[in-house]
Amino acid sequence: MRFLAIWVALAAIMLLGALFLPRSIHLSSLQSIFPFAAFLAIAAMGQSLVIMARGIDLSVPAIVTLSSTVLLGVSGGSEGNVALAVIVAIAASVVVGLVNGFFIAVLRLNALIVTLAVGAIVSGLTLGYRQTLQAEATVPQALADFGGARLLGISNAFWIALLVTAIVTLVLRKTLIGRNFEAVGANPQAARTAGIEVMRYQVSAYVCAAVLYGIMGVLISGFIRNPTLEVGGPYLLAPIAAAVLGATSINGGIGSMFAVLGAALFLTQLGQQLRLMGLDTSYQMIIQGVAIAIGMWLSGFWERRS
């Protein structure tokens, strides 16, 4: 029931939309939100892995922007450099994840401060690198075509989000690595006593999260075609909100990637419905904040009940 709640909430706002705002559930409207829900879902899954390891990651916008900028620089807009550019962009994200993991898991520094500081440093380095590129730099046409294409009427980005969801879920639920990871998040001391290398799993959480941020940066770059330094801006708090609404335990060890995907769909659909209602941005932010607060309360409720 813990992970089903967000899907019930999604069904509820869809029903309300059908009754009072039919435009919001038209096929074209739903198709338009799928890519944005996919971007949020992938970033939120990375954040969920970190939260499951009893951490927090505020460097998400910086990593997304870094991967996007590196993609532009390495590819140079050339079709022949697409594969190399994608690999280097994700590799750059991994380096940042390793830095976060080293300072937090090995040196035992505060995750909030470390990721905030690392994010600021990475943002500065990205800005310097971006200034060496053309102002109107674009991604290769092949990546742009992929980013804007649909399969069976659904954005390619959303299909990739589904694939990522399935893979991460499979690893967490069906492998020894996944079970050990959940044990480390649930009780690090007990996991250490059981012979699990706690530090390695904690570092891996930040690295795997960075990989997901990098993938998301590549996908959103292909969708936008001409990404700017603001491309990662919306993903500072939104992934945390989606992770919490998806019932990821803030005490670590418990999470469901499918619930996080549902939370990303919920937040994206809610935002679209509020915009279609013509509400001022201030009211939209208030309503979204209330929804997140309710989600956090429900998360605490399920933990107390457990």
The H-and-E topology, N to C, reads as HHHHHHEEHHHHHHH
Radius of gyration: 19 Å
Tell me the name of the CATH class: Mainly Alpha
What CATH architecture do you see?
Orthogonal Bundle
Could you give the order of strands across the largest sheet?
1-2
Low-confidence stretches: none
Distance between the termini: 11 Å
Structure overview:
The protein has a single domain (34-300), classed as ABC transporter involved in vitamin B12 uptake, BtuC (Orthogonal Bundle). The mean pLDDT is 91. It has a two-stranded antiparallel ribbon. Helix 3 (60-75) packs parallel to helix 5. It contains 13 helices and two strands, in the order H-H-H-H-H-H-E-E-H-H-H-H-H-H-H. The chain has 306 residues and is mainly α.
Short description:
This protein has 306 residues and is an all-alpha fold. It contains 13 helices and two strands, in the order H-H-H-H-H-H-E-E-H-H-H-H-H-H-H.
Write the topology of this structure.
Layout: H1 5-20, H2 27-52, H3 60-75, H4 82-106, H5 111-130, H6 141-148, E1 150-151, E2 154-155, H7 156-174, H8 176-186, H9 188-193, H10 198-224, H11 238-245, H12 257-276, H13 281-305
Helix pairs in contact: 1-12, 2-7, 2-10, 2-11, 2-12, 3-4, 3-5, 3-10, 4-5, 4-10, 6-10, 7-8, 11-12, 11-13
